[in-house]
Structures are given as C-alpha cells and as structure tokens.
Amino acid sequence: MASFQVLFALVFCHTLSCYGVQAETIVCEDISLSKFPFCDQTLPYNVRVKDLVDRMTLDEKIAQLGDSAPGVKRLGFPGYEWWSEALHGVSDAGRAVRFDSVTPSATSFPTVILTAAAFNESLWKSIGVAISNEARALHNVGLSSGLTFWAPNINVVRDPRWGRTMETPGEDPFVVGRYAVNYVRGMQDVEGFLDTSDPNSRPLKIGACCKHYTAYDVDHWNGVDKYHFDARVTERDMMETFMYPFEMCVKEGDAASLMSSYNSVNGIPTCADPMLLSQTIRGLWALHGYIVSDCESLKEMVIAHNYLNNTPADAVARALKAGIDLDCGSYYTSYAMEAVKKGKVKVVEIDKALKNLYLVLMRLGWFDGSPGNYAALGRSDVCSTQNLELAAEAARQGIVLLKNDHDILPLNFSGKRPTLAVVGPHGNATSAMVGNYAVKIVCRYSTPLNALGAYAIVKYAPGCSDVKCRDINGFAAAAEATKGTDATILFMGLDLSIEDEALDRLDLKLPGYQDTLINSIANASTGPLILVLFSAGGIDISNLKNNPKVPAIVWAGYPGAEGGRAIADVLFGYYNPGGRLPLTWYPADYVNHLPMTSMQLRPVPEMNYPGRTYKFYNGATVYPFGYGLSYTKITYTITSAPKLVLYQLGRFQLCKPIDSSNGTVPECQAIVVEDLECEEMVNIVIGVTNVGIRDGAHVVLLYSVPPSYIVGAPIKRLVGFQRVYLRSGESLQVEFNLNGCKSFSIVDADAYELLPAGEHSLVVGDGEVSAKISFMFSY
C-alpha cells in the first residue's frame, strides 16, 4: 500500500509539473472551442467578446457574474476564479491560489506601509514585477486558477487608529497614488506592449485591482463597522484626498480593475452609486477593465445599510446600473434572474458587465496565450533567491531611524564579537513580521534573534509572552539577561491582535506593560539600549523619545519574513537607514479630540476637532510625516528655480475669487484648472550633498506651500520625492519637473480645482531650504 501511495504521488506530481513547468491556461487551444469566432485571433477583442456573450443563454450569463464563474458547459467553455490576493506577495487568502507540498509558499514582502517608507518608486515597481512573476509561475504549474489579483489597497490613512494601516502606503494621497501607479505597472505591464492604439487590447501580465473605492478607513471602532458606516464627506475632500489615488491608479497605472468598498458615502452604498462608479471611473477616468464589489457588499447593502428598503433583486439592479460588473459574492448569481423578470434590469446591462470581464481575460492571454512568454516560469521562480533578497532589501529601505543619541548606532565593537541581550515579545518574531493578507506558510523566516546571532552572541528573554504584555512575570528574567552584555535590543510594538482588518485601535499607546518593561530594562542595562518597534500605525512613545536611557529607536513596520536580517543589517551598519515615515505619529491625546467616524480633514474649530494628516494638522507630533534619520549628514541647496510663472489667458478665461484673509490679495486670484491648457512646467534643481562620513541612501521630499492669503488651503503638500544614493562627500543635482497646474493647485470649498495667483513656495524636507515662485495671470 505504501509503495502504491509513493507511486501515486510521483504520478500526481508529474501531472502538476512539481519540478518544472506545465503550461499557462489557453482556452482557445481546445479544439472544440477553436471553431467559434470568439477564438478567432484575426478578429478584434470586442468582436470576439460579443460573440462569446451572445452565445450564452440568460441563465449561463448570470452564472458568470460571481467571482467563482463556472463557465459554460454546453459550449465546453471553462470556468474562471476571479479572486486572488497579492497585497505584499501572492497569497492563498482568495479562492484561486493554493499551494502544495513542493511549493508551499510564495515570497513574503514587507507590509505596504513599510515599503512605502522607502519612498522609492523603482522599488515599488520591482516588487510588482517579482510578485507577478510568481503569480504566473503558480498559474503555469496549476496552483493558481486565476490571473486577476485584488491588490493594491490604496485607501488614504485618515485616522491613526485604522486597523488596516499596514496594507496602505500611508496618509499622503500623492504618495499613495504613486505607489499605486508603480505597483500596478509592475504587476501588469508586458514588455514591448506599453503603448497600444486601443488600450482595451493592451496585453496584461496579470490583472491588478485598486481597492477599496472610496472614503473607506473605518473597520470596527466603538461599535461602528465598515458594513454599516456612512462616510459623510465633502466634495472637496473627496476630490482632494479620497478619490485622488484611485484617479492616478486608473489614468496613470491603467489598472485592470477597481473594487468598491463596503461603506456608504453620503448616504449611498458605494456599490450602488452611479456617480462614483460608471460616471467617474468609466466616464471621467476611462477605466479599461472591470469594477468588482467587495465580497458580499451587495448583501450588506440590503442587510447592514438597509438602503431604501431594497430587496436582494433591487440591490442587484442598482449595482448593475451603477457599474458593478462582478459580484464577489452570491447576490448576482442568486437574484439577477429575478431582477430581469421583474423588469428592474435589462439583459443588455448584464451583457455589458460580461464584456468588460471577458475583455480583461482576453488581454491576460487566457484565451490565446500571452505575448510576454511567461510559459517558462515555474516552481523555481517562486521563493527564488532573487525575490527573497528583494524582500530583504525592501525592508532595509523602509526601516526608519527615529532616534540616535550620541551616534549609538550603528553598533561597533571594534572587531570583538559582542554579547547582546534581546528582549521583548518580538525578539524572536515570525508571523508577526508578515502582517495580514499573507501566505499561511512563508518561504523561510529570518527572525531578529537568528539574524542578530550572525553578528553576536545572543541572550534572549522575551519579558512578555505576547504584545499585550498583560503581566510583569517575565520582567526579572529579562533584566537578568542584560547583565554582562555589550548592548541590549528591545523588540516591542504591535501585531495583528492590536491592529488588523476589523480591529481599529482605541488608543495610540504601547499595549499593556510594554512601557514598564522598556523602562525597567533601560534602568537595568549597563550597555547601549536600542528599541526596535513593530507597528503600522504611529505610537505615542514621547516618554521614550525623551528618555536619555533609550538612546536609539528604530521603526521596522512589519518587515516581512526576511525582516530579521534587514533589521540586523541596519543596526550593525551594513545598511545606512534612509526610510521616512509615511504617516504622522500623533500624541496619545489626539484621539480624545475627535471620533474616528468624523471624516473632515480640515480642523473644525466649532467642535474643537484638530486637522488630520500633515496637510491640515499643525499641532504637536511625536514624529512628523516624512521624518527619518541617517547615519550620515545631508545638506541641500537650491541650484535653480524660476522666480515667475506666467499664464497667458484668453478673453473667455475668467478669474475666480478664493476664500482669503484680510491681507493683500492679487486682483485675479485664481483660474479654474479645467480652463487652462496646463502646459507650463516648473523646473527646480536641488543640490544634495553627503557631508557625513558614511555612504547611504537619502530621500528628498519636495513640498509646495500655497500663498499665505488663502484660507483653508493645505499647510503644505508633497509634490515630488526621489530616493538617491550618495557616497561620503558626494554631491548630486536632483531635478524635479513639476506641472504648474498639478503641483500648485488647490481645491476650494466648492470643489473647484484652482490655480492661485501669488507667491508660492517650494520647500525641501523639513524646510532646510526653500524657493519662492510667483504665479501671475495676464490677458
């Protein structure tokens, strides 16, 4: 019997190409289908897709509208699984991907919030390429039945308590949008086919999906959950913040899909709002792809939102008419027939949804094969040495040095092999480093404990059994472990038991007795003490920031399965940290001043609400957005910048007033951006010099500051960033070429995008250097 099982396993393994490549799915290679026009490669995609849809009965059409499409048995047409996840690596969190004993995993990259901290667009794109390679490889060997992956998450982090902060690129809509563009391009682009005359025929490597559209960042807080939440948002905030990354994702990233969110916006569930969906995504932004609902959100429209007392058939009709092509769930497949029979929806609207879906599958090569020659990708391309190193490099680039008194870091013991005390619940972290939407089994773990063991003799005492640190029972042993050591490294912070989907935070503090443990170790330790924090959202560590007994603090986000060696490389100086915080770290009492459910970004004086994000909050911070230290010292100079930008106006271009203070204002205060051709570019060159003794990467952040007479404008906003590498003593000229309209406009209270006249400023970093530029209009 045993020998039979071995033989069966070998045969099964050969069938699935356990040690090599099987082949990508190519529907039209089936001889029974090749006779149909929808498999005729000489015809345009839209003609072929119409032929396929026209051949289906209404029952067959409706069956394909769910995320697990069964295909059309009568035609011999195969089914398709739409739901796969790839937030920071291919995951088996969806329906389409599974792993086996030969390939049990895929590469675990850092969570998005840490990758975003690198402020490196080429890194973001490289990760997208690596993940899509693994996705194609898994598809080729039969471990993935789909090529559509519902990532990235590009919701802006409006409130520091949000549990899904780790999934996002942070609080700045421009950074979030640039991340989306690069990640999506890395996942989707087929080399040699970046530009086509018909975007709906442009080949795709895999299909990305930007989610969750829109104004979504409340999961479960004080009894309010995402299924019931109605986000009351001004049009100004929608345009300026919540919609902006999605617009970039569609227009510049050419994403194959957008996913609607569970919440309502201003009383209408997002999956039922034609203004948000068909009119904006398709009409204004020209999406070349499909729109999918978040899973079971049509059901939540009926049950949680009780929207207009809709029946399930009503909800299906509303979603189809609004522009939802695919239902992640069962409502379309269960109730679309009833909606048609009762005259609530036309069959042509179902046809339109199916055409949008099958056009994407055509572009993915599911019908004909891909021109990208991905058939050679196989198991050896999953968890490859190259991808594991990229994961470690992403973690290194994102790690942020928050404090480094007396240049305690990097650790240097003059050639001696030191003895380190490693203390804290994350000292031997494994799954905590990986975050959510991750594979169940990783390729391998590089834990902090093991990685530091490559540099030193390590004594380990966790102090707390987990991050909730409910008691002090392990404190004495932790203090004892520090005796006789050359340095102590504390690994503290949060994990998925504190912040996660469906788990928003109630405060911004370290959990339980963590503060007590840190202070007790700081008092007991005789050598240097370094605090390493795992978290997505900010933590109020003001007391530790100001404690001279804690001379060094490092934020490591959730660094992925390779995180241990990335952290060790930074601590020992083999990598000079260059990450910058993609979030504001607020003091703990910030959350006492406004509920998480208030969507306003600007301060609300009559309610004593402070502003949100660095653009509108001017109060005290623990650490500001964009903060990050280095082991070297960088200086800036403005090499060149224009003094004046002049716009010639036509006779029908009218000036628009702006809400302004009592100061001197220009006669023509602003022009509506839509009325301008917006061809004027502002070129600024910044001299960046490494005047320190160490080589390293540095992130140059460039902000625009609007004229001071304008009321309600952002304090500043990021308009450009570049990560550069400089050797000790090296200078570089870093150039930014900014579109005058895009980089210097504001959105007024009436939701007009305006270009204001007057003196604007461009500020580098924390204001080390700046340039003033006057914008003027002339008839």
From TrEMBL:
Signal peptide: 1-23
Biological process terms in GO annotation: arabinan catabolic process; xylan catabolic process
Record-linked InterPro entries: BXL, Fn3-like, GH, Glyco_hydro_3_C, Glyco_hydro_3_C_sf, Glyco_hydro_3_N, Glyco_hydro_3_N_sf, Ig-like_fold
Superkingdom to which the source organism belongs: Eukaryota
Entry keywords, A to Z: Glycosidase, Hydrolase, Signal
SUPFAM superfamilies, alphabetized: (Trans)glycosidases, Beta-D-glucan exohydrolase, C-terminal domain
Occurrences of domain Fibronectin type III-like (ranges): 698-768
Gene Ontology MF term list: alpha-L-arabinofuranosidase activity; xylan 1,4-beta-xylosidase activity
Identification of the protein by name: Fibronectin type III-like domain-containing protein
